[in-house]
Design goal:
With 81 residues, the chain is mainly beta. The chain is built from 1 helix and 5 strands; from the N terminus they run E-E-E-E-E-H. It has a 5-stranded mixed sheet with strand order 2-1-5-4-3, with no helix packed on it. The radius of gyration is 18 Å and the shape is elongated.
Length: 81
């Protein structure tokens, strides 16, 4: 019987800065299709490399992101209060 992968059932992904410096290797569930974006704490990373070689790392690179805290509808409604 073959050994299970080291992190079973999770799979490792490498998180990098925008310019490719390693941040951390994280573990995510084994999705059928990889997520386009992952978050780690307050940092956001976009899929950069989904290698065809199963031994090469899956790489996500950091992107600038902002959390939406108010919508136009909420803002307009506040004037009525």
């Amino acid at each position: 019987m073959a050994d299970r992968p080291k992190y079973y059932p999770f799979m490792p992904v490498q998180l990098e800065t925008m310019d490719g410096h390693r941040v951390v290797t994280a573990l995510i569930p084994p999705f059928q299709s990889l997520p386009e974006v992952v978050s780690w704490g307050t940092r956001t990373f976009k899929l950069h490399a989904d290698p065809q070689d199963s031994y090469a790392p899956i790489v996500y690179r950091e992107v600038f992101a902002v959390a939406i805290v108010m919508t136009v509808d909420e803002y307009a409604g506040s004037a009525d209060a």
